[in-house]
Amino acid sequence: MAVVRAARAAEAEALTGLVMRSKAHWGYDAGFLSTCAEELRIRADDVTARRIVVAENGQGDVLGLASLEGTGPLASLGLLFVEPSAIGQGVGRLLYRDVLRRAVELGVRRLVIDSDPHAAGFYRAMGAVAVEPAPGGEGGSAGGGGDGDPSASTSESASESASALVRFEAAPVPLAAWARAWTGGERAVHVGNVAEFNAQFADASLDREQTAAHHYACLAAFYSPYPAALVLPRPVPKGWTELVCRRLGWTGVEVYDGLVEQGPGLSGAVRDRPALAALLTGAGLPLVPWGRTRPFGLLAGRPWRAGELRYESKSAAHGLFGRILADGGHPGIVLPAQWRAATRWAAVRLLAARAEAGKSTVLKSEHGVGGSGTTVVTPGQVRAAGGARAVLRRLPRGPLLVEEYVHGPEEDDGPRDLTYDGFVDDAGRVHDVGGAVMDVVDGCYRGATVGPGVVPETAEKPLTAFGAAVGRELAASGYRGWFDVDFVVDAVGRLAPTETNLRLTGPSVAFMVAARLDALRGAGHLVRIADRVELGARLPEAQLDELCATLTRGCAELGAVFVPAIPTAAFEPAPWLGVLVAARSRVVLDAAEALVRAEALAVGAEFDA
Hints:
By secondary structure, this protein is of the alpha+beta class. It has an eight-stranded antiparallel beta sheet, with helices on both faces. It has a seven-stranded mixed beta sheet with strand order 1-2-3-4-5-7-6. Helix 15 crosses helix 16 (379-385) and helix 20 (541-558) packs antiparallel against helix 21. The radius of gyration is 27 Å and the shape is elongated.
């Protein structure tokens, strides 16, 4: 594997030779290369002045070089060239990411790249944004180095096209402060204990084997921006982990999968393997679970506090919201009324009375996942079912909460379902992560979008203020870890809190990936997690790898990033994928999601042909 180091003044002549070989790789004739030679020459005193670094392999062979020139807040990537024999091996990617990292340390906020047209495809793939043709110059200071797919084949000769340099910009940023605080600035061990967490609440929406939860355990790949190890209950495809690591620039990620044959007990399964438990806990790295459980506390050596998850209960969360609002200070927040039905017959009477009054109702179980256990019932649905008793007969057994339905704006005027994410650190401090827009259909969560400008400006302040207030109450109750607060928007734009989740969530995964992509590719990513993308056919592992490669290329052509999030459900009789897509504009993001859904459904046609 190649590593980056500072170039040495004594290497200047050899590095000039590498630059000229790399430039010549694209077919430029001798006359043109001769005119470029002086501009591209590296002198001994340039090595330090231009901050030149090289990538070398384990044998000490130099495979490429890059320079970072200027000072903050504006600097340029002056050189990025790769030895022709090493193009396509990730060397250019390694060097480019090192330049962005160093730019952050120098306080650079705009990095300018004047690219040879042959390298333009590489810089687009790395997340740089084309802004205008570069002024003047024929050498192409950041040319010839890409290990992506060069997209500059034209009817012009290579020498003629070289005069039209392509200007790109990137916005280097450090990893978000909340992301550094989440794991203390360290890589982490991610424990995919989704089924174990759900089993605490006897979630009736999942079958006895917790199959759905084990699929969602794949989200453990994204519990922090840069994992050291993944601990998973079921086996996962090797091609999936390799692709995710490439897309997010991870190296050295260990995967321990296939640990649970039956039941939800992942933490216990690790403890039953003393050597593995010692390996995971002995490195001093933080262990990050989907959610807190007693078995996880034993594995991680954390005390289990009785009742620390009490606000995972929807009725307890509603009571907490009411106490916060009773103190005032949240004029943009309104709390829907809620009643706990002591019996099913009491729930029938409440639902029937509301339906007779023409009111819609939300029926909730105390605990649920992704909207499971939450049902919206209109008066028309009650009549069509033959009465309130018939409606309730179709719902899972267990205690029910009856809640006022919050009507949204009459017209489609902005998002309806919002969420706030934050976490309480071990010292009891609350950290804001941000707001997201959720995709919710008939009470069921389908996905979420995070990023700049996603939450309407009018909602952002009340959402953040109330979410942080909930976080402070959770901290005071002894809870430590990730949490969210979900809201719906009412008819006049106020936010109505509906529940809090004391665990990681789909939106939290999107926040993690956005933080990583911003640090890796420059600021400004919108990230969408799509919970279930239906597949047109059940796929063998090799075909799943092929589909993911196709989606990666297709999204890149749109200027988006594709990351498969949940691969194992592709092997189910009713197959689906969980996916992440990222882009810097809503238009591109929507186009990428549409492409992914269309291609995923189309795979079935290949088997019918």
